[in-house]
Every structure is written in C-alpha cells, then in structure tokens.
Design a protein that fits this description.
The protein is an alpha+beta fold. It has nine helices and 17 strands. Helix 3 crosses helix 4. It is elongated. The two termini are 42 Å apart. About 3% of the residues have low confidence.
Length: 318
C-alpha cells in the first residue's frame, strides 16, 4: 500500500476540524493536537489558556491517489473563516487561529497558489489572514479529544451549533459557484425521482442502469464543435472537444478526461468479459468504458455514450 501523505491544518476547534476532514474520501485518519510553537508536550489546559504559542490543529493522513493536497486545501478554506485574525468563531485567541502548516516545498507552493485563488474568487470582502508556515513538531492531544464528535455526539452538536461555524460557512459560500463540501463542486446529484423526470428513457437507461445506445445513431458521435461535455445529470465537467477524436466506433471518443477528479473507473465483468467502466464522481452516472487502443498522447479511448452527456458550446461556457 502507498504510504499516506500528511497535511496539517489549524482552523479553530480541533473537534470540528477533525469531524469535517474525516468525511473526505481518501482521508485515512485525522489526529487532533497542538503545533505552532516550540514548547514541548503542551497540555490542553496550557494551550487553551493562550500562553504557549501553540494552536489547536489537526494532522490529516490521506491517500494522494484518491484525494489530492490541493483538494484538501480547497476543502480547508470552505470550513474556516480565513479573515479572522482573532480566533475562529466562538473560540477567541491566538490558540484558535487559522493556519496552514506545510510539510514540503510542494505543499508550500500549492498552499500559496490556493490562497491566491481564494483571493481571486473574492468570496470574502475582508483580507485573508490565514498564514502559511512550515510545520514544527506536532503533539497529539489527549485521548479524550480524539474523535470527540463520535464519543460525545450530543455535547459536540450542541457546541458546534452554538459556535456559529456552520452558519458562517453557509452564508459565506451560498452565493458562490463553489460549495463548502465540494472542493470545486457546484455539482450535485438530484433525487432519483428528479433524475427519472429530467431524462429521456434512453438517457435514464444509460446513466442509471448501465445501458448502451446504438452506434452512429446518437447525438455527439460526429460532433465537431468546440466546447465541453458535462454529465447530463449533475453538470460536472467531464470531457473536452480538444481531446475528442474520430474512433470509427460510432460513439463519442476521447483521449482523456477534462477533469480527472470527476471520473471514476471501475472493473466491469459483465457480458462475459472484463472491461473498465467509466462513471461520473458526483452523479455516479454510467458513462461508458475506457480502452487501451486510443491515439497519442495517452493511448486511451474513453468510449462514452452521448446519452450520458450534455454538450456546452464554447460560446456558452460562461
């Protein structure tokens, strides 16, 4: 197994940060603790008093093949108030500051780029004060703080609601194209009833029951227009016209996805053969299959059903 990478974040109460990050697919474990200063082995009482220089923080152990550090950074911004220099929500003081602690030069560069992207998005009308700092020694917190939200669900929920954290996050992000739980995702999967209502019988059969449309008799097999192809159910971006090629199969074919994080590949042993099924991440729609007989530069052929896609022309991308 690949050795997990480590990310270290401070975002106020570590109970809340741990609870949020343990929901992320690809995160293997989260540890609550203290970091940010040189005082060895601080206790919760010492840190919470504000006299050590440490802040409450979490260490996130994650599989980079499932979730990237950049995606964790995006997720981090959506779960804190990066404009508050005096703490986070109801917890006040430097010991509750927000901070990104990088472990490598690559993490440092990605954190800086992520902060720049947040500034460009203009989600907040105040300066972003979250610092980016090289990690020092991380001291795990006392055992009763680990998984506090699981061990004490009633008191945790009471604390979280009264902290104002979720109310702030909802208000800050509700009018943007980026939701707090979705990395980039404004994309959601509608209810089963809504999906059935919005799709044609063939589109429903393809996306929900792994159906296959007839070759050469579908919407996009010979489409030569510039634009992108999105999931017909959720709208999440999947493929680009720049990667489309004429495969001769009668289905839209692409050399690679536009946004790899929205593509899920699964082993498919139906029809007495072993193939690699391609599904969308958010909507979990069946799209088609990927084969190893495509052209350069990837050598892959993503053979996709038109009925699983919606085409957005170049002049309509905005």
């Amino acid at each position: 197994m690949m050795k997990p990478e480590i990310a270290t974040f401070a975002g106020g109460c570590f109970w809340c940060m741990e609870a949020d990050f343990e929901k992320v697919k690809g995160v293997q474990k989260v540890i609550s603790g203290y970091t940010g200063c040189h005082k060895p082995h601080p206790s919760y009482k010492e840190v919470s008093s504000g006299g050590t220089g440490h802040t409450e923080a979490i260490q996130v152990y994650f599989d980079p093949e499932v979730v990237t550090y950049k995606e964790l950074l995006d997720y981090f911004w959506r779960h804190i108030n990066p404009t508050d220099a005096g703490g986070q929500f109801v917890d006040r003081g430097n010991q509750y500051r927000s901070e990104i602690f990088y472990h490598t030069d690559r993490q440092k560069m990605e954190a800086a780029a992520s902060k720049k992207d947040l500034l460009s998005a203009m989600v907040f009308d105040k300066p972003i004060v979250t610092r980016i700092t090289k990690v020092e020694t991380f001291y795990p917190a006392e055992a009763y703080h680990q998984d506090y939200y699981k061990k004490n669900p009633i008191s945790y929920k009471y604390y979280r609601w009264n902290s104002g954290r979720d109310q702030f996050i909802e208000k800050a992000w509700k009018d943007t194209h980026m939701k707090k739980d979705g990395m980039k995702a404004a994309w959601t999967r509608p209810s089963d009833a809504a999906i059935k209502k919005m799709l044609s019988p063939m589109q429903y059969k393809i996306t929900q029951h792994k159906g296959t449309e007839r070759p050469f008799e579908n919407a996009y097999w010979d489409n030569k227009k510039e634009g992108i192809y999105v999931d017909i159910v959720s709208g999440e971006p999947l493929f680009s016209s720049t990667d489309k090629f004429k495969s001769g199969t009668g289905w839209p074919s692409f050399t690679r996805p536009l946004e790899p994080e929205y593509i899920v590949e699964k082993t498919d042993k139906s029809l007495f053969m072993t193939r690699t099924e391609v599904r969308s991440k958010v909507a979990d729609s069946h799209l088609g299959h990927v084969f190893g007989d495509g052209p350069a530069p990837t050598g892959l052929r993503y053979c996709i059903n038109s009925g699983a896609l919606k085409f957005i022309p170049k002049d309509k991308l905005a």
